[in-house]
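Quarterly update from the structural biology core.
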Amino acid sequence: MVRGEICHENGEVLGMHDGIHKFTVGQRKGIGIVSDKPLYVTKIDSESGKVSVGEEEFLKRSGFTFDKFHLVRKVDVSEPFEVRIRYRSQPVEGRVVQVSESGTTQMAFTLPQRSVTPGQIAVLYRGDEVLGGGFIHQVAGT
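Predicted structure, tokenized:
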């Protein structure tokens, strides 16, 4: 169990928590912080135990980096895809913006998306066809 600080996105320490296992990105209830505006969990650092919170606008992300990205077959990655970042979520438009020799693949959304979380699986589609996917490794800001 990793205990740590609860900090606002502006850096202000708002309190302490008893374990990161009690939090998920996008969570609003049960954070244990009183505020005049609704606060949401925006980031969880499993190494330091720090949980970051902020208003809803801090949940929006412009893209992410894949870990263990795999294409089912060779496709033109410069074309837009539909991306599903949560089970049963609506697919959103995005495109692969960089594929490095080390295997790192960066994905950018056409419009910023809410609650993109490292560890989730992202799947790329074109229509009903699954093109590939991988684990979300890092998220990009808005």
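The domain at 4-54 is CATH 2.30.30 (SH3 type barrels.).
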